[in-house]
Design goal:
The complex is a heterodimer of chains A (about 350) and B (about 150). Chain A has about 350 residues and is an alpha/beta fold. Chain A has twelve helices and twelve strands. In chain A, helix 4 packs across helix 12 and helix 10 packs across helix 11. In chain A, strand 5 and strand 6 form a beta hairpin. Chain A has a ten-stranded mixed beta sheet, sandwiched between helices. In chain A, strands 5-6 form a two-stranded antiparallel ribbon. Chain B has one domain. Chain B is built from one helix and eight strands; from the N terminus they run H-E-E-E-E-E-E-E-E. In chain B, the strands form two sheets. In chain B, strands 6-5-4-7-8 form a five-stranded antiparallel beta sheet, with no helix packed on it. In chain B, strands 2-1-3 form a three-stranded antiparallel beta sheet, covered by helices on one side. The chains are: A alpha/beta (about 350), B mainly beta (about 150). The interface between A and B is large, with 42 and 43 residues.
């Protein structure tokens, strides 16, 4: 395997509604990531993640390329996935020997539409989508199944929300942050029982970008490169009624393939847009009690669609860059009820 | 343009995207929808003998094509998980508060996502439900207007 490191990371302030258009949100983020990387353009490879459904236009990602500098000789690709999967493609490209540097970015502006309704269009168009189940209701089906199987309570869910929002006070990019008493959170009505508003990630507009560099060149441009020591992604069935929603088999396998358990994990950034999913992911990855979970506040603090997974990787890399952690794990998810999952292990030297 | 640009300075306009499609459901789901039109629910057997309802074209455990054996399931079934939607969205099937539920119909090995019209105080995992059919059925998932608790009358 070729050694590949994340040498820089940048993200926007993830607002509930950002009035700038996608290129305007993305441009300063890409510029910041590029400038911090110490790598001169052009990059050998550029890869982005987004979904056209948020913009309501086929191939909408092409317009966003303006923010990356889309002129020859750019070699560019796009995934209709969270940017974490764009990073995976870029990592593979570097493994093939066709690239030494790569720019990875993603963006998602959810505010123009009704996000829970837009997301319902990704479901089976014949037997599920005609019933218009929104993303919160589907997560709630998983939450109840998990609560009843695990014996945990809604208070345990609120505890995740309170911790995430508290930790997000130190995150200038967060959409939601602050001190909340668990009892007060539990006084709120259900959005879709057993989930309340605090159990659900906020809807956010935002973007993120990072730069990958291979081998010794990463050591030249970055004081403490965040080396990708393992990365893998796996999928579960899309049919919600045909899989065990209380576990995440795909996360478990991806975590094993990425080598999560080989050594202790200082920090894990888990992409859990709903509180109960953090518990499911912790179990699937076999994380120890002393692993710090989502010091950024996680997706419960800011959840720009198609970006929040890449942000998990960027936040996990940032802990290596600043020397506060030696080994971190990042997780990204896509699809309803943790259908598809990516796990990335990062280490400093 | 500065990030502090005021909302009043930035224009917005509606953008409506509508592309009508005419999709073919394929032979497996055709059997399911044809049965619904006759107020019956069918599942399909995998080669291992598991019954998938809703039917799928491939066995979720092996990826092999399913058999051509369609078996009637339900109409009653058991709630495997549920969520009560207190404020339904405009496009959702019922205008009054309702539940989405995963329902394992009698004789099926997988669960169907559908709607349950019930008082939330009486909903629970494991409760038995049965379909309430529309007066006119046309061969779509909405031919079942919703499910209701078996003990409700």
């Amino acid at each position: 395997m070729r050694e590949v490191a994340i040498v820089s990371f940048a993200q926007s302030r993830h607002a509930r509604r950002d009035l700038r258009n996608e290129v305007e949100i993305l441009l300063p983020v890409v510029q910041e990531a590029v400038q911090r990387s110490g790598v001169e353009r052009p990059f050998d490879f550029t890869c982005s993640g987004s979904t056209d459904f948020l913009q309501g236009q086929p191939f909408a990602f092409v317009l966003a390329l303006d923010a990356a500098g889309a002129w020859p000789p750019i070699a560019e690709s796009h995934v209709e996935m969270d940017g974490a999967w764009a990073l995976y493609e870029a990592w593979v490209k570097i493994q093939t020997g066709q690239a030494e540097t790569a720019l990875v970015y993603s963006f998602g502006k959810s505010s123009p539409g009704d996000l829970p309704e837009v997301l319902s269009r990704q479901l089976d168009p014949y037997v599920v989508a005609p019933l218009w189940p929104d993303s919160v209701s589907l997560a709630a089906l998983q939450a109840r199944a998990w609560l009843e199987k695990s014996g945990r309570s809604e208070r345990d869910l609120a505890a995740v929300a309170a911790r995430s929002r508290r930790d997000a006070k130190g995150n200038p990019h967060a959409t939601v942050a602050g001190d909340f008493a668990i009892d007060d959170l539990l006084d709120a009505p259900y959005l879709a029982s057993p989930l309340r508003k605090h159990d659900c990630a906020p809807i956010s507009d935002g973007a993120a970008a990072l730069v990958l560099v291979a081998g010794d060149r990463a050591r030249q441009v970055c004081e403490r490169p965040a080396w990708i020591r393992g990365i893998d992604h796996r999928a579960d069935l899309h049919a919600l009624g045909a899989r065990d929603l209380t576990r995440s088999a795909s996360t478990r396998i991806a975590g094993e393939k990425a080598g999560v358990a080989r050594r202790p994990v200082d920090v894990a950034e888990l992409h859990a847009p709903f509180t109960h999913q953090e518990y499911i992911l912790r179990e699937a990855l076999g994380l120890a009690e002393d692993t710090q979970i989502n010091p950024s506040g996680g997706a419960l603090a800011a959840n720009p669609m198609m970006v929040a997974g890449l942000i998990r990787i960027g936040e996990a890399a940032r802990r290596i860059h600043d020397g506060s952690a030696r080994r971190t794990v990042a997780h990204a998810t896509s699809g309803p009820c943790l259908q598809q999952n990516l796990v990335c292990v990062l280490e400093g030297e | 343009m500065s990030q502090q640009t005021q909302a009043a300075d930035i224009l917005s306009a509606p953008h409506v995207l509508e592309y009508p499609y005419r999709r073919s459901v394929g032979p497996v789901l055709s059997r399911f929808f044809t049965a619904l039109r006759e107020r019956k629910i069918v599942g399909v057997e995998t080669s291992a003998g598991r019954v998938l309802c809703p039917p799928a074209e491939a066995d979720p455990e092996t990826g092999a094509a399913v058999s051509d054996r369609f078996v009637e399931v339900g109409p009653g079934g058991v709630i495997e998980s549920w969520t009560f939607v207190a404020k339904p969205r405009d496009k959702q099937p019922l205008a009054r508060p309702f539940a989405y539920a995963l329902i394992r119909l009698d004789g099926a090995d997988t669960a169907l996502l559908h709607v349950v019209d019930a008082d939330p105080a009486r909903l629970r995992t494991g409760a038995r439900v049965r379909p309430r059919w529309r007066a006119e059925t046309v061969g779509e998932i909405g031919d079942i207007e919703c499910f209701e608790l078996e003990t409700s009358r």
